[in-house]
Amino acid sequence: MKHIQKLLLLTALLSSSVAFGQLTEDPEDRRDQGKDPLRTQTPEGRPLPFGQRLRFGGGINGFRFGNPFSLGASPVVAYQATERLIVGIGGSYTYTRYKAPYYVPTTYNQFGGRGFVMYEAIPSIVPNLYLHGEIENSTIQEKVDGGTSFSAGLTSPLVGLTYSQPISRRFGVNLTALYNLNYNDNSGLARVIYGNPFVIRLSFF
Question: Compositional bias of type Basic and acidic residues: which residue ranges (predicted)?
Answer without folding.
Answer: 28-38
